Amino acid sequence: MTNMQFLQGNEACTLAGIAAGARFFAGYPISPATEIAELSAKLLPRHDGIYIQMEDEIASIAAVIGASLGGMKAFTATSGPGFSLMQENIGFAVMAEVPCVIINVQRFGPSTGIATQPGQGDIMTARWGTHSDHSIVALAPASVQECFDLTVEAFNLAERFRTPVIVLTDATIAHLRETVSIPDTVKTVQRARPSGPVENYRPYAPAANQVPVMPNYGDDYILRVTGLVHDEAGYSSADPEVAGTLVNRLINKIEKYTDELPEPEYAGPDRPETVIISYGISARAALSAARRAKQQGRSMGVIRLRTIWPFPEKFITDICRSAARVLVVEMNKGQLLREVRAAGITEAYGLNRTDTRVIMPEEILEGGVLLE
């Protein structure tokens, strides 16, 4: 059974977190993500959950990590400036393999920018905001329905891969209202738990899928947690072999299982002359432009990314290989365009806005890509 609700994107994210089993939220109010904190404060206590307003975003992600280590599915929500403050502890969660979800409602500009206007400038921050080599999972909803669906998926992926997962929305999607179908129950994934003799447990010994099993703090199993390089028992180590093995496993446990992540969606002919690559709110304009192009008798396809990181290179190159034109549409100076070119599509170019305005279908149609 499902029920239909007329929701904002932020509301859909919140309801999705609760449906996925999240029972802890720690955050700090920040536009345009504040509604997630407000609704979490209202709803979590009704589900035997906990809401805490922290003093800042640094404390927020730290509290989320602690709650997750204690056995709760936990999340936070923020926007650009707060996302920057969270980066050190996101790196800690990567290294310590702590499942959690961070919803980043992107807004315009560097620093404080414009708090209420949209942007898509946090793409590379999501990938490389925390230092050193690592992998990360980042999902990008393009509708209010996907705010629900992909937030549920984010919690499942966090538990499956024992890693932080980022949901990248934006100020427009966050405050857009659309009809959302919410099922009575959703598919949920729980982190793998240890079994067997307590004395044999090693907290970072990988299972068959390269992800270690994870007890709760307070269980009989000893869970050592550190941001330092550590061996399988959780003890810090400066051994080069230990360091290389650990970092490569942290990367490979995600990068070698990308078939489990939400695939891009392609709409268009089998061999399009023009391919548009986009995500989030900008993808909606791309799809509208493609529909109009079809009415004009032009061959155009759209790749809409749902997983931004890891970057779905093979999917993109398979479709774009025979296209005469490839256009990457995004509200930044071309952050994902660089990835498309690095994948070997060197003739790709960008259609970009960096002035708070969303990209419109007319701009895509008039931007040269469809003109002879």
TrEMBL record:
Domain of life (superkingdom): Bacteria
Annotated GO MF terms: oxidoreductase activity
One record GO biological process: response to oxidative stress
Ranges where the Pyruvate:ferredoxin oxidoreductase core domain occurs: 273-345
Pyruvate flavodoxin/ferredoxin oxidoreductase pyrimidine binding domain segment(s): 18-239
Annotated keywords: Oxidoreductase
PANTHER family reported in the protein's UniProt record: 2-OXOGLUTARATE SYNTHASE SUBUNIT KORA, PYRUVATE-FLAVODOXIN OXIDOREDUCTASE-RELATED
Protein name: 2-oxoglutarate ferredoxin oxidoreductase, alpha subunit
